[in-house]
């Protein structure tokens, strides 16, 4: 007995199920375990932090430098503003007219001004190399120092304060052309004098003290013996005091003949 023939489409159906290569079974690239288009995982990007500490330090240095420079400029400007270029700019300065070539004497001199600012004087000069004396030095010797261009700063020990005295000592000590000594009965706390000039002040902090010391000391326009020495080691170790006797020719070499004839009372020229 003959078998019924199989339908024609039975093979097509079976083939499609076995082959697995039909359109319905294709894989999408990158999907599944067999894909070749797999993407890399996202990388962790670390953002660098700015060195705020170093930046702050640099800014601080710049600010500090600017402040220092500004302060220095202000100080220089103030210093320049306080400088004087002529004697008349020193308020209260008194001037006199003692001529050059004053006589050298060994006897006491009756000076018109107190402290004196010129006139006959001892042949030995007081050391004026920035010398601080604790005694009232002989005035005749101090006048000779002023003839050599020195500024003689005096103070009344009864009127000056400890602070002002310390300020004057700091100003004078070691500065050539300056000398400091007490002066009994001065009548004002402080007096500064150089040949033919004098200034009295109440305080060592007075701006004019520094102005006088800077401008008048060794100013060749105002003293007779330009280039003369201020050194006298003997006077440092053994100063002649006021009301003391002249050492005369027994002292260091002097710069002019010395006479023992009493000098007349001195007055400055009008």
Describe the biggest sheet? Answer: 6 strands, mixed
N-to-C SSE series?
Answer: HHEEEHEHEEEHHE
Spatial extent as radius of gyration: 49 Å
What average pLDDT do the residues reach? 83
Quickly list its features.
single chain; 270 residues; two-stranded parallel sheet; 6 helices
List the helices and strands and how they pair.
Blueprint: H1 9-19, H2 52-82, E1 94-95, E2 104-105, E3 131-132, H3 139-147, E4 151-155, H4 162-172, E5 178-182, E6 190-194, E7 197-201, H5 207-216, H6 233-237, E8 258-259
Parallel strand pairs: 2-8, 3-5, 4-5
Antiparallel strand pairs: 1-7, 4-6, 6-7
Structure overview:
Helices cover about 30% and strands about 10% of the residues. The chain has 6 helices and 8 strands; from the N terminus they run ααβββαβαβββααβ. Strand 6 and strand 7 form a beta hairpin. The protein is elongated.
Characterize this entry briefly.
The protein is 29% helix and 10% strand. With 270 residues, the chain is of the alpha/beta class. Strand 6 (190-194) and strand 7 form a beta hairpin.
């Amino acid at each position: 007995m003959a078998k019924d023939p199989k339908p024609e489409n039975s093979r097509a159906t079976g083939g499609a199920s076995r082959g697995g290569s039909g359109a319905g079974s294709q894989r999408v690239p990158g999907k599944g375990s067999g894909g070749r288009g797999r993407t890399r995982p996202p990388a962790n990007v670390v953002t660098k932090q700015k060195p705020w500490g170093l930046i702050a330090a640099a800014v601080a240095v710049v600010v500090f430098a600017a402040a220092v420079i500004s302060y220095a400029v202000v100080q220089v400007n103030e210093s320049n503003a306080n400088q004087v270029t002529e004697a008349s700019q020193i308020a209260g300065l008194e001037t006199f007219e003692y001529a050059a070539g004053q006589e050298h004497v060994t006897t006491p001199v009756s000076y018109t001004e107190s402290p004196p600012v010129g006139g006959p004087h001892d042949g030995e000069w007081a050391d004026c190399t920035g010398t601080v004396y604790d005694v009232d030095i002989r005035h005749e010797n101090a006048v000779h120092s002023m003839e050599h261009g020195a500024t003689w700063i005096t103070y009344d020990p009864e009127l000056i304060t400890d602070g002002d005295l310390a300020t004057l000592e700091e100003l004078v000590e070691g500065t050539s052309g300056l000398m400091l000594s007490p002066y009994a009965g001065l009548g004002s706390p402080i007096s500064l004098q150089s040949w033919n000039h004098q200034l009295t002040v109440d305080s060592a902090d007075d701006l004019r003290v520094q102005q006088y010391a800077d401008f008048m000391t060794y100013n060749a326009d105002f003293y007779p013996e330009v280039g003369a020495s201020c050194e006298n080691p003997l006077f440092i170790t053994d100063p002649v005091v006021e009301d003391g006797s002249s050492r005369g020719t027994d002292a260091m070499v002097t710069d002019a003949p010395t006479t023992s004839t009493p000098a007349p009372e001195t007055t400055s020229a009008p």
